[in-house]
């Protein structure tokens, strides 16, 4: 049984990665229903929380059905991160996660996210300050290093463990790589197989099938997998991986009707939670995957990503059912 502190996660948990404008409550609800074991929120700016910024505050929304759920925070000022941690505690998450992995320029080049990988001593000081300031279990998500010359993740993970974090999730790329090339799981395996490590080590990067999940488990020994991009518009990925790991084959892909139903649930919840404008706009990135592997779908995809309101989207989904009803969708 894998545990984060006293929180039981199962034998080989699958975690939904924190993704900006993706891992919101509507999408988390769908992933939970489809087998995700642990939820993480979108990352939240410590400075935004302190300033009471609406965009940051709304990301604190969590729900009982999601548990266990972690709220992820980023920043590079110790005092601000401690103050943000106190604000986060009031929402009663199960876990506080620190983002040391975001590679985007506006975050990393200010010393937050993956930017702190250029200053490991500060990374350790900041983490210890947060661990010491809360009774909630603290976890970390990070990368292998800043670039090819600074992949110190084995030593960094051990140091973070020693100052009190309860689990670590490692994306198998450096900040310089962003999301290019293939994730390198070798160093993730070295972290897990370090005899001095005793906290859970979760791997992240390029896992989009049961076959790859089995390799991650058997070859590299990780305690579980964090899934990000492969879940966008495809929450079924969690149960598909679990099915493969139990039975040795991937189940049939979701039918057209199941895809349309999931897309309907998503847009309805998104509009309810975010409002009619943001709900429509921020759900658009999911449609390509909801309807992947359907031939001659270009016209309908174009409509879905340009429709301005939920009524138009509902009509487009009705038209999808009419046009493609009865087709067999092949897994690729």
Outline the structure in words.
- The mean pLDDT is 92.
- The strands form two sheets. The protein has an eight-stranded parallel sheet. Strands 1-2 form a two-stranded antiparallel sheet.
- It is an alpha/beta fold and 332 residues long.
- The protein is globular.
- It contains 14 helices and ten strands.
- Helices cover 43% and strands 14% of the residues.
- The chain has two domains: 2-247, Aldolase class I (TIM Barrel); 256-324, Orthogonal Bundle (Non-ribosomal Peptide Synthetase Peptidyl Carrier Protein, Chain A).
- The two termini are 32 Å apart.
Primary descriptors:
alpha/beta, TIM Barrel, 14 helices, 43% helix, 14% strand
> How many helical stretches?
14
In percent, how helical is the residue content? Answer: 40-55%
Fold-level CATH name of the largest domain: TIM Barrel
Low-confidence stretches: none
Count of beta strands: 10
Radius of gyration: 20 Å
Shape descriptor reads: globular
Number of domains: 2
Distance between the termini: 32 Å
Averaged pLDDT: 92
- What amount of the residues lies in strands? 5-15%
Strand order of the largest sheet: 3-10-9-8-7-6-5-4
CATH architecture annotation name of the largest domain: Alpha-Beta Barrel
Global structural class: alpha/beta
Give, in order, the helices and strands: EEEHEHHEHEHHEHEHEHEHHHHH
The main β sheet shows up as: 8 strands, parallel
According to CATH, the homologous superfamily of the largest domain is Aldolase class I
């Amino acid at each position: 049984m894998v545990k984060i502190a006293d929180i039981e996660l199962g034998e080989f948990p699958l975690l939904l990665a924190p993704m900006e404008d993706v891992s919101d409550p509507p999408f988390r609800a769908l992933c939970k229903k489809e087998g995700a074991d642990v939820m993480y929120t979108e990352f939240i700016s410590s400075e935004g929380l302190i300033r009471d910024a609406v965009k940051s505050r709304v990301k604190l929304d969590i729900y009982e059905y999601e548990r266990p759920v972690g709220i992820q925070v980023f920043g590079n000022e110790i005092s601000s991160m401690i103050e943000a941690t106190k604000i986060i505690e009031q929402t009663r998450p199960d876990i506080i996660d620190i983002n040391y992995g975001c590679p985007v320029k506006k975050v990393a080049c200010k010393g937050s996210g993956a930017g702190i990988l250029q200053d490991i001593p500060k990374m350790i000081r900041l983490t210890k300050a947060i661990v010491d300031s809360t009774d909630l279990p603290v976890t970390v998500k990070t990368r292998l290093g800043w670039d090819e010359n600074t992949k110190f993740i084995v030593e960094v993970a051990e140091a973070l463990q020693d100052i009190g974090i309860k689990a670590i999730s490692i994306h198998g790329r450096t900040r310089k790589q962003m999301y290019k090339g293939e994730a390198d799981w070798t160093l993730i395996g070295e972290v897990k197989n370090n005899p001095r490590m005793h906290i859970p080590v979760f791997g992240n990067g390029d896992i989009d099938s049961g076959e790859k999940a089995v390799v991650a488990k058997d070859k590299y020994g990780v305690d579980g997998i964090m899934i990000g991009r492969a879940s966008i518009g495809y929450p079924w990925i969690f149960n598909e991986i679990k099915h493969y790991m139990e039975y040795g084959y991937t189940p049939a892909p979701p039918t057209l009707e199941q895809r349309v139903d999931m897309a309907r649930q998503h847009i309805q919840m998104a509009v309810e939670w975010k409002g009619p404008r943001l709900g429509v706009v921020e759900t658009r990135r999911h449609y390509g995957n909801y309807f992947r592997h359907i031939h001659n779908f270009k016209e309908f995809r174009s409509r879905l990503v340009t429709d301005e309101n939920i009524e138009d989207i509902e009509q487009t989904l009705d038209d999808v059912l009419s046009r493609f009803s009865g087709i067999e969708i092949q897994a690729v």
